[in-house]
Amino acid sequence: MALLEIDDITKHYGTHQVLSGLSLSVNEHEVVCLIGPSGCGKSSLLRCINRLEETSSGEIRVHGERITGEGVDLDRLRRDIGIVFQAYNLFPHMTVLRNTILAPMTLLGQSCAEATDRAMALLERVGLAHKAHDYPDRLSGGQQQRVAIVRALMMNPMLLLLDEITSALDPELVAEVLDLVRDLAAGGMTMILATHEMGFAREVSDRVCFLYQGQVHEEGTPAEIFGAPRQEKTRAFLRDLVKAGRL
Amino acid sequence: MALTMTETVRVPRPVHIHRLRSALSVLVALATSGLIAFSILRIVAYAYRQGNGLEIAVVAALFALLSAYVVLLGARAVALSARAGRAVEIHHARELGAQASLRSWNALAWSCALLIATGLAWLLVLNDAAVSRTFFDLALIRNSSGEILSAFTTNIVIFAVSVVLILVWALVIAIARTLPGDAGRPLRLMATAYCDLFRGLPSVITIYLIGFGLPLTNLPLVSALSSSTYAIIALTLTYGAYTSEIYRAGIEGVHHSLIAAARSLGFSHAMTLRHVVIPIALRNIVPPLMNDCISLQKDTALVSVIGTIDAFNQSKIIAANNFNLSAVTTVAILFVAITIPQARLVDRLTQRAQRRRRAGGA
């Protein structure tokens, strides 16, 4: 059974339709990249999966269990589905370490020592152990984003959503964040990435979904999507990227 | 394009030497010092007849010095302007002209300030020094200060207790006002109604109603409290409404993306408030909270309407006995003296918050 099944979901803000009958399923240890023009619904889809936003209709299931609609323990659900945002969103009034250990301590009942050990190990792995006691505003964007990923990992999520995590970064800082994601993929983390980094999407993902007008317009392996796209819209999108020097 | 550039002829702009401006400044300065000289003669003569010539003489000397400085500034402006007129090199002339202008403005501004100060001095001595005698009887200020200081402790106690109660109470109200969803509506409405009521009600009326009203109710517990306690209750109710608005602004000012980050980790609404929203909000609202404190401090004088013997009431008693308001001046001085350092602290904190915002921190 797939880890995540998205079944014909729609979402609209007022009269504006963002998702219109989107279906997608993601298996365990799979890395899925969402690509597509801005406004195609990538971010909305991710935010619907952990219910930061509500779907208008359709159903999402995790391990076969429905998570849309009423009667779902959202706080419980969100512990298991991590998300990393474009703007990092670290808590500005806490040190890096505190940012990472707050949730496991208060929500998973870990002791301070236990959580700190784990956090320091992860921070070490992403090369930021020496920044553990600094406040986020002392860190570069790339460093903040790596901390945000560590913060999400501390909850041991079974699914990690990455919402254009390199879009706000200066170009020279993108690599350090992507390296980390590459590590996670190699470690078997199930991930869904919304991204504009086509080269990276091609390299790291098992499957690429081209979203267009709130639907999965075309999906396939990176080789299929980037090498021989079948749909005209996909081809047009990739052509534009080539013209812009991004592919 | 480059061709047309070389063809344009550059006409040197005229040099401003500000002759008129400097002439005006020196004239105004001279007129000011003439007026000051006249005032000094008259006021010192009067003070000498009254027998307290020394203090006045010191002030008079200060005025004389300042007026001399102003004339000097004006004269310097005229001299600079003249040199600017004679200067050969155009940039040098401009520089001298600019200096002349700067000095002229300085002279004019100082003249203006001195004229106002002289006017105030006249206000103090006119009509046989009626104003000074009524408000600034130094002997009475000295004699009454002991009694008034000890009564001022009442104001400080009322302030200290209320401020703690207000900070807690207002936070409760603010949280009630920001409760989410359908279930939160009843409490949200109650809190809103409370804020509307007590923000609209003048604090003096609240104090009056509670201070005189509660004892009349004969209710257990609340009808036999001291008048200071009633004052504290009334001030807490009034300021709680105001302060909750400050808290609310702080809470609503926390960026929604941080709330999304907390919720996405699995924090509930309450936990998000406690760990993320309120700590960040508090940091941002310290300056307005301090302003509120200053305002509360001053409003402790309102408790005199229900007969609490605070500094103001004490001073009114002394004023009535001596038929002179100088004791009230003592209270005024006390209030101002404890407010000024806080006002400076607020300025400092506000600046720091602005710097932080500009630096890009949340």
Automatic annotation (TrEMBL), chain A:
The keyword Nucleotide-binding applies. It is a peripheral membrane protein. GO terms for cellular component: plasma membrane. It holds the Pfam family ABC_tran. The keyword Membrane applies. Keywords: Amino-acid transport, ATP-binding, Cell membrane, Membrane, Nucleotide-binding, Transport. Residues 4-238 form the ABC transporter domain. PROSITE patterns: ABC_TRANSPORTER_1, ABC_TRANSPORTER_2. It is found in: Cell membrane. PANTHER family: AMINO ACID IMPORT ATP-BINDING PROTEIN, GLUTAMATE_ASPARTATE IMPORT ATP-BINDING PROTEIN GLTL. This is Amino acid ABC transporter ATP-binding protein. It comes from Gluconacetobacter dulcium. The lineage of its organism: Bacteria, Pseudomonadati, Pseudomonadota, Alphaproteobacteria, Acetobacterales.
TrEMBL record, chain B:
The keyword Cell membrane applies. It comes from the Bacteria. Residues 152-346 form the ABC transmembrane type-1 domain. One of its GO terms (cellular component) is ATP-binding cassette (ABC) transporter complex. InterPro entries: AA_ABC_transptr_permease_3TM, ArtM/GltK/GlnP/TcyL/YhdX-like, MetI-like, MetI-like_sf. It is found in: Cell inner membrane; Cell membrane. GO terms for biological process: amino acid transport. It holds the Pfam family BPD_transp_1. Gene3D superfamilies: MetI-like. It is a multi-pass membrane protein. Belongs to the binding-protein-dependent transport system permease family. HisMQ subfamily. This is Amino acid ABC transporter permease.
